[in-house]
Amino acid sequence: MATATKSYVKHQRPGTAKPTTQPAAKSYIKFPSPLAARAVSSWRVADLCAAYQIPKKACPGGGVIGILELGGGWKQADLDMFSRSNGLPAITVADRPIGGANQPGGEADAEVLLDIEVAAAVYHYATGQMPEIKVYWAPNDFQAFREAVQAAVTEGCDVLSISWGADEKRWNSVAPHEAKLLEAAVADAAQAGLVVFTAAGDNSSGDSDPGANVDLPSSCPHVIACGGTTKSRGLPEKVWGTANPNGEGTGGGFSAVFSMPAWQASNGAPSGPPLNPKGDRMVPDVAANADPQTGYLVVIDGVETTIGGTSAAAPFYAGLFAAFGRKLGAIGSTLWQNESAFTDIASGTNGGFIATRGPDPCTGLGVPDGRALAAVFSDHVVGDDGQADLLSRALGSNSPAHCVVVQAEGRNGAAAKPSVSAASYTNFALWHGSGLVRLQINDPNITADSRVFVALSEYSTDARLNRFIGSAQMSILNVSPANRAVVVLANVSWPNALNVRFDYFVDPQQI
User: Residues of the chain with pLDDT > 90: what percent?
Assistant: First the structure.
């Protein structure tokens, strides 16, 4: 029987025979081309974490990392060498066979080692601790994905990294019902607290087939699909890919199996003509460095090697979210409500699609702004000195774990629109509460380059008529503009909940 998925390792090892049967899924891993016109610029995982502003040794941790592998294996000697090269304690791995086994010595070893080493190193950077890692070994068929998700839930994993997949056409031709069964399993797993991160594919918008295609399991609405970028030091980050829709580059596009989930449709994902006339699920959700020419330094067969592919992006996010805590579960809606926690990638192409400002089928929401993401998902973030960060030190345990998302209102209370001119305008948003609040005000006229000034006032019943300054102490602590939103961190000091109006003035000129 043909196996379901396959690996995207580009260099076959000497003496390693090619498989005689076609695998069902492939792993999304890439080696740098020896004929590349530009020099390879490798990243150590810690350096990449710093570049994405992930808080160092600051997150609570505790998340158990699961990894699905459909072939290959790992040896402790490689993990130990990686630890020594990167200043880490020893990496420990628990093998969990579900029809497969840890069998090192083949081409897929590169996938296995990349997944383990990247996830462990990101987790350690963010927490200062080493994670608990469980590797699920399964046969390379479509049912294995569902079984791995269910096993990860049963064994208490908090994240599951999957760097294997195949385009939707292949799933439909070989196992037409399995995609919907997998999505149902992932949705149930999310309710149980598991977050599934998947690689979006390495063969651009075509995903190895004619036309536009996306990869499964990345097209399942309840997974977090991870696309890829080219991140060179000193240069703007861009989409990983070329104009060739079946060339080497990040997967991305619109599903032919699943409709767009509400959290994408209501938060800026293209839904409607011309890109997405049927309103289908968009892939990816997020992105990170994946170009093999700017790849990750990992250890394989005792040699430090540069590897890329969206296979690296999935364990990167898995390690990060395991560092944020336990049982985060169904994070899709929260992610898409917090676009400001990502850096938009607005240049480049994956062949069939061109990056634009805001969410797009090349890099989704963009690449992580580590501090902003930690503020959204982690209840407690400490500084490099092991103490609570300045905000927590000043405000104690009131620090909000999640953003409150509101819509901006115009001066007449209607939907937000420029009320002075296209260049500068004033609108407001309303909130009822007290204490520390991280308020995301959605306004389509704001960009990441906007200058935004915010003022607070209290009102009794009608925010447009009876505003006043009362006895409550109210302060603005931080203002962070993003594309189509501004995030305001404020403190309202009063024993009871108050009606608070946030007036904001927007001047989109760059500082």
Answer: 58
CA neighbor of 109 nearest in space, from 74, 136, 82: 74
Q: Give the N- to C-terminal CA distance of the chain in Å, as an integer.
A: 61
What lies within 8 Å, CB to CB, of 18 at 6+ separation is 12
> What residues are annotated to the active site?
111, 115, 311
114 contacts 27 by C-beta, under 8 angstroms: no
Q: How many helices (H) and strands (E) does the chain have?
A: 11, 26
Paired tokens of 120:
């462990």
Residues 6+ apart with CB under 8 A from 341: 335, 368, 369, 372, 373, 375, 376
Amino acid letter, residue 13: R
Question: At 262, which helix (H) or strand (E)?
Answer: helix 262-265
Please give the helix or strand (H or E) that residue 319 lies within, else none. Answer: helix 310-324
Residues of the chain with pLDDT under 70: 1-24, 28-30, 33-40, 379-425, 463, 508-511
Q: Which domains does the chain have, with CATH numbers?
A: 34-377 (3.40.50.200), 404-507 (2.60.40)
CB atoms within 10 A of CB 119: 30
Q: Give the Cα separation of 398 and 395 in Å (integer).
A: 6
Q: 453-481: per-residue pLDDT in tens?
A: 898 888 887 767 777 778 888 888 888 88
For residue 457, report the phi and psi dihedrals to the nearest 5 degrees.
Answer: -150, 160
